Amino acid sequence: MVRTLGVAVVGFGWMGRVHTQAYARVPHHFPGLTLRPELVAVADEVPGRAEEAAARYGFATGTRDWRTVAADPRVEAVSIAAPNFLHREIGVAMSGAGKHIWIEKPVGLTAADARAVSRAAAKAGVQGTVGFNYRNAPAVAAARELISSGEIGTVTHVRIRLLSDYAAHPEGALTWRYERERGGSGVLGDLASHGVDLARHLLGEIEALTADTAVFLPRRARPAGATAGHARATGGELGTVENEDYVGCLLRFVSGARGVLEACRVSVGEQNNYGFEVHGTRGAVFWDFRRMGELAVSRGTAYQDQPVSTVYVGPGHGEYAAFQPGAANSMGYDDLKVIEAHHFLRSIEDGTPYGATLDDAVHSAETLDAMARSAERGSWVSLA
User: Fold this and answer.
1) Is 96 found in the same domain as 181?
2) Which element (helix H / strand E) includes 275?
3) Are residues 295 and 248 in the same domain?
4) CA separation for the pair 362, 370 (Å, rounded)
5) pLDDT, tens digit, for every residue of 156-180?
6) What is the CATH number of the domain that holds 161?
7) pTM higher than 0.90, yes or no?
8) What sign has the CA pseudo-torsion 327, 333, 335, 340?
9) One domain, residues 79 and 196
10) Are 124 and 95 in contact (CB under 8 A)?
C-alpha cells in the first residue's frame, strides 16, 4: 500500500535544489516504493530563499528557521544540505525529533561531529543516509563486482583522483567554505571525503596513511552579500583562506593493497576530473566520472601487453535499469542523487540501511582527521 511521507529540505543552495528534484523524480524511476515523498517544508536562513523555493517547487511552507522544521509534525524525513558547521546541530536535533535524515557529507567539521550525528540517529531509531553519490554510479557498482569476484586478481594498488577548478579563480569569494569555524577542512571534507568513501567501498578498510596538504591561493575577497555555489567577489576586503586547497595521500589497506589519493580544488584545466584506477595481479579497472557510463577493463592471463577494453554499463549494473533501457545511454550527476533518494526512502520503508550510511560518514571523517594529523606531523598515522 502506497503512503505519502512528509519531507523537508534544510539549506536551499544548489545541493538543496538537487535533493528536492530527486524527491520529485524518485517515484518515476522506482515505482515499486511504497513511500511517496511529499514536499512539506523548506528552510534557509537567507531572506526570501525559502519562500522562493516553496513557490517554485511546491513546498507547503517556507521558513528561515530550521527549528520550525524540527518541530513540524508533518515532517517525517529531512534533507540536510546546510553548510558544514550546521550539520551536527541540525542532524542531532532532527534525529532527536524522530525524523529520518538524508545528510550531505562530510557530516560536520570533524569525526566527533559525525559520531554525534550517528549516535543521535541510532538512539532515536531513525535512518541516516549520507551524500556519497559517486558510489551510486552503475559503473562503480560494476567495478566493485569485478574487484570482489577476483576478475582482476588480488588488488595490489589503486589511484583515486578528485581534481577540480571550482576554486581556481583568484576572484573566488571567501565564503564559509574557506573558514575553519564554518567549513572545517577545505578540499579534505569537500572532495577527499568522496575519495575515501570510494576507496573503502571498492577495497575495504584503510589501515594507515600519510598525507601532505597545501594552500595555493591564500587570500580571497569577502562577498558583499549572500552567496550560492562558487561565487566571485571583486573589490571586497581580503581575508585569509584557512583550510587546504590540496591534499596528496598515501594509503595502506587492511588487505595489504596500497593506494594514492589526490584531491585539489584549484586545478586549472580540470573540471570534475574524478575517478580511479584499480590494479590487480591479473588485470585492472579504470573509471572516469566524466565518462560515467564507461569502464576500461583489462583482464585475462597475458599479464604483459594485456589489452584494455571499454565496457559500456547497462541494465544489470547497479541501478542503471531504472533510468535507461540499454547500454551506452547516458546518465548524469542528478541521476546519482535520485538513486541516493531511493536508498533513503527504501531504508525508511524497510527499516534497513541501504547505500552510504552515517557509519560510512564516521569512517570517512576519521580518515580525514588522520590525514590532517599526518600533514601536521609529517608522519604516518594508523587508523587501527
Assistant:
1) no
2) strand 273-280
3) yes
4) 12
5) 999 999 999 999 999 889 988 899 9
6) 3.30.360.10
7) yes
8) positive
9) no
10) yes
CA 356 to chain centre: 9
User: Stretch 268-284: mean pLDDT, rounded?
Assistant: 98
Q: Say whether both 157 and 88 belong to one domain.
A: no
Cβ neighbours of residue 45 closer than 8 Å, sequence gap 6 or more: 64, 65
Q: Is the pLDDT of residue 301 over 60?
A: yes
* CATH code, 105: 3.40.50.720
Complete DSSP assignment for 192-235: IHHHHHHHHHHH--EEEEEEEEE-S--EEEPPSS---SS-B--S
**Backbone torsions φ then ψ of 261, nearest 5 degrees:** -125, 125
Rounded CA-CA distance 320/239 in Å is 45
| Nearest residue to 10 (alpha-carbon basis) of 61, 179, 33, 188 | 61
Q: Is residue 166 located within the same domain as residue 200?
A: yes
Nearest 5 degrees, angle CA 163-CA 112-CA 10? 70
Asked if 95 and 195 sit in the same domain, the reply is: no
Say if CB 342 and CB 31 are below 8 A apart.
no
Q: Phi and psi (nearest 5°) for 126?
A: -105, 160
Close Cβ partners of 236 (under 8 Å, ≥ 6 residues apart): 173, 174, 221, 222, 223, 224
205 shares a domain with 122: no
